Amino acid sequence: MKHFKVPIIITLLLIIPTKSIIAQEVSDYTKLEPQDYSKITLPPLDLLFENAKSAPTYELAVVQEQIERKLLAKEKRAVLSFFSLRGSYQYGMFGNESTFTDVTIVPYLSYSTQAQNGYTIGAGVNIPLDGLFDLTARIKRQKLSVRTAELEKEAKFEEMKKEIILLYATATSQLNILKLNAEALILANVQYGISEKDFANGVIDSNDLSSEKSRQSVAQEKFENSKSELTKSLMVLEVITRTSILKNK
Fold it and tell me: Which residues, by range, are in coiled-coil regions (predicted)?
């Protein structure tokens, strides 16, 4: 007899929606001219806070909270595990072979077949006492896990906002300092140009020219250091907030 069984299986799936992660592109500050820095304006803090929610650090906390909520929904349905369903289906060709004879008939063999099918359905109940009495406590524990995930998400966002505020304040200060250093550098370059002409005309000596060159070098160094610190702050701010600063230039 040939037969086939189709078991009925109830499977619980935890489905968490995911977003594709796009690599963050940082603006290329190497292409900026000194005068371009004076045109940079920082976007509002509220916009930076909102954009920071798309950062992987925050999204990781969001996904963890979603997982805990799915597990809570599973615990609330845990009572269904006390019940089970089962079923089977059978189909096949049944054969019957027989031999017949008596005192006047030579023995002969007969064989017959017949297609048959059938199915069975059943249900069962199995309630372990430890699972039954712990069901309410498990739901409460999972609710606490959900609340923990919520608080961790909020705490992570607070940390991100504090870091954004510090970078924002630093970048704002450095923008002002850079503008002052840029003006000082322009004046130093102009003064050195005048000194070169005076030296060529014999108005000043080499010591005076050397002093003006030193002032120009100091002004250039301050400008480059200030530009480096500002660029670093802006690039880190772009990475954390997923926001291009130069688009606001």
Answer: none
User: C-alpha angle with apex 23: 244 to 16, nearest 5 degrees?
Assistant: 115
CA angle 82, 84, 86 (to 5 degrees): 170
pLDDT tens column, 188-234: 999 999 999 988 888 888 898 899 999 999 999 999 999 999 999 99
Give the other-Cβ count within 10 Å of 167's Cβ.
22
Q: What is the 8-class DSSP label of residue 43?
A: P
Burial (CB < 10 A; 0-12, 13-18, 19+), residue 177, is middle
**Taking a C-beta distance cutoff of 8 angstroms, is the pair 184, 216 a contact?**
no
Mean pLDDT of 137-162: 94
Residues whose CB falls within 8 Å of the CB of residue 216, separated by 6 or more in sequence, listed in order: 185, 188, 189, 191, 192
Q: Of 183, 181, 191, 167, whose CA–CA distance to 225 is shortest?
A: 181
Copy the structure tokens of residue 98: 């027989």
Q: Is the dihedral of CA 42, 44, 49, 52 positive or negative?
A: negative
User: Which string of DSSP letters, residue by residue, matches 181-241?
Assistant: HHHHHHHHHHHHHHHHHHHHTTSS-HHHHHHHHHHHHHHHHHHHHHHHHHHHHHHHHHHHH
Tokens matching residue 113: 């077949």
Percent of the chain that is helix, strand, coil (3-state, to 5): 60, 15, 25
Q: How far apart are CA 23 and CA 242, in angstroms?
A: 10
State residue 116's pLDDT score.
67
Calculate mean pLDDT across residues 238-249: 82
